[in-house]
Amino acid sequence: MRLWSLAPDYLDRQGLTACWREALLAQAVLAGRTRGYRNHSQLVRFRATPDPLATVGAYLDGVADEATARSYHFDRGRILEPPRDDRPPVPRVPVTEGQVATERDHLLAKLRVRSPARVTALADAGTIRVHPLFTVVPGPREDWERA
User: Fold this and answer.
1) Angle, alpha carbons 102-14-46 (nearest 5°)
2) Rounded distance, CA 34 to CA 121, Å?
3) Structural domain tally of the chain?
4) HEC secondary structure over the chain
5) Which residues form the domain of 58?
6) 122 within domain boundaries
């Protein structure tokens, strides 16, 4: 499972659709709807929030926004706790600079093989943008990241 901290517009078609599916799986785990993946390391940061389902819902919403911008149809009806105007926004989740750099390198390796045309936008970016749910803080790669 890879729940990218990077802005979804860096992802290629395969990466964006995989991110959507994997975030739906994360949502199922957090909702207690599946027995698999319960201890997956990527879920640590969602579980650490006051409302993990709303947080993963905000994550899914950001991925769906990018899909819509590309004229893809991701079924927002599958988001259990979508962002709504009648409740406060989900607090942003910190992600370290080291984690962002790790993910950038990981995604670049994938893009070089699968989608070379998308490499330039990420490789030449001065400041790497992150998913709207996250806020970048100083620090090394996250402890939950697999080496």
Assistant:
1) 50
2) 37
3) 1
4) CCCCCECHHHCCHHHHHHHHHHHHHHHHHHCCCCCCCCCCHHHHHHHCCCCHHHHHHHHHHHHHHHHHHCCCCCCHHHCCCCCCCCCCCCCCEEEEHHHHHHHHHHHHHHHHHHCHHHHHHHHCCCCCCECCCEEEECCCCCCCCCC
5) 8-137
6) yes
What pLDDT band is residue 1 in, cutting at 50, 70 and 90?
low
> pTM above the 0.90 mark?
yes
Tell me, yes or no, whether 12 lies in a domain. yes
Residue 65 lies in a domain: yes
Could you tell me if residue 144 is inside a domain?
no
Closest CA to 50 of 87, 101, 98, 22: 87
Count CA atoms within 13 Å of residue 96 on its CB side.
Answer: 12
